[in-house]
Amino acid sequence: MKRSALVAAIIIFACLSAIPAQAHERNDGGYYTIVDELNRPVFLTGWKVGIGDQCLTDDNRRYEVVSINGDYAHAKFLGYVDLSAYAPAGPSATRFAGLLAPKIARAQGNKVAIYHTHSDESYVSSDGAESIKGAGGIYKVGDAFAKALQAQGLQPIHSNAKHDPHDNMAYERSRRTVADLLKEQPAAIFDVHRDALPPEAYATTVGTEKMTKVQLVVGKYGPTGKQIEDYALQLKAAADKQHPGLIKGIFFAKGGDYNQDLHPRSMLLEAGSHTNSREDAEKGIALFADIIPAILGQTSGAPGSPAGAAGLGSQAAGPSGASKSIGWIIGLLVVGIVAFLFVATGSFKEAGAKLKQFTTSEFANFLGPRLRRLRRRDNRDGEGDDKR
Amino acid sequence: MSLPVGMIILLVVGVLVYFGLAQRLLDRMRLTDKQALFFIAAVIVGSFIDIPLMRAPAELSVNVGGALLPAALAIWLLATADEPGERVRGIVASILVAAAVMVGAYYLPYEPENMFLDPKLIYGIAAGLIAYLAGRSRRSAFIGGILGIILSDIAHFVTVTRAGIPGTTDIGGAGAFDVVIIAGLVGVMVAELVGETREKLQGGPVLGPNRPEGLYEFSKELGHHNSKHNKDKSLSAANKADEQDGGEEK
Fold first, then answer.
1. β-strands A61-69, A313-314: how paired?
2. Is residue A338 part of a domain?
């Protein structure tokens, strides 16, 4: 009886863990303001935030949400992130090489893939509505991005695939688009969205031109999240250098990987908000395209950068995001194997024995026939030798 | 395409672990090790093949590796089921999973800032739990995960077409990395976890016709194997220790 109660408890717990704890989209037109310890607003977001979510502001301060009170999320200041280490290193840092970057990119034939998971996203003032199923204004923003990339000497591949409706399966449908784009072997892949905030959150002026900022979103869910985090910091560092103020910040979302597990250079971009004009968003993302050649030209970081000379990390900065991700994958695998063996056998002794059985005889049928053939041939050869 | 060595190793490790895990799980689907490997190879090759089914009014295509092959395996498992009950449970699980996916897609949060668990895992875990509760077996969890997602794709296609929304439906289009396959594999893992835990708690599997034999003790088999081996050959110190271990078990 006790046992069945325990089983029921386990199953109920498993079910509950799959039920959303904070599943409400804000449909009251409101948004969240992340404030620091002194109640100064540091980051705006149009969707409900959860405790533990992190953000990197435009001036590179990193915060973690600790409590939520109405429309305000109180965040703890985690520290300044020194992005100088993430900036494109080596020759591309010089002015001359910067001028050459488009030429180098053209010579390397780098392809950049663009797609839109939320096909309906539109800009109210330019498109007439915030959501137009199957024909969102976001495709035109993607076109502007593609055009700007082409001007940079890159080969854009802009997917026209539609993933409506705007629901929880949209990322699974767009995953198919990503897989299709991967067959073209792009050097980077971008999922372009627009946000849902008041216009001032994204509006900016670069030089004399009015445009919208770009926000990066990193999916921290899967083991590959660490690599994507590094990549986002590299993008922000490069943008800060070339176009200060263009990046609104980075949102580190815990709830998914947004298909960023499929390519180590995947990024989700928010180009302005539905309240900004689409033309401004097009200008902002076109400017963002300027930094891409320098990022793609990097096959490794400088020895002192977090990526290290081989992209695996350096002694000074520790392991790179890619190394951390590799560590996570292998760590999870080992924990998974131990847990499975324990649950399947019930004691460490049985688990050890099962592991031994696995390593000695599980794959016997794989090489068995070949080994037997080899052994038979050896025997025959041996007999022949004897006769001689 | 130029990538740093770190990223290349990350890709290689990721792919090896993923397919290694898939091989171990497919192994439980009435496939031998070799057949499971061949199946994975076929899925990888098939991932590159999309068969277009319809162009207008909406685009519909099906991927060989991500949908046709796993569906064929699931249907084969249904066809070769030990008893009719297992077949019914597999089909019921698939329909329930499809319903869960459709309800979940509608009600669960969909903005990056708002999601709490990756959809791939939500649907995989849901498939595993539903299929385990409906069918109480790893095989029906696999069938539920695979056919459930495919059914939900078909339902999605019908809904979108009826609503007149231009869209592209590529069933299993992400090939080996599609939610179809991931849901099937996660489903087997969940069934394995829940099932093994439950069996452990009740003190062993239920015995009877079409049921697995009792708990398998690997240490016993190894002990037995060693003692036989030892009779043939002279006993080394290490083997003696092994035999003693085996002896304790008996």
1. unpaired
2. yes
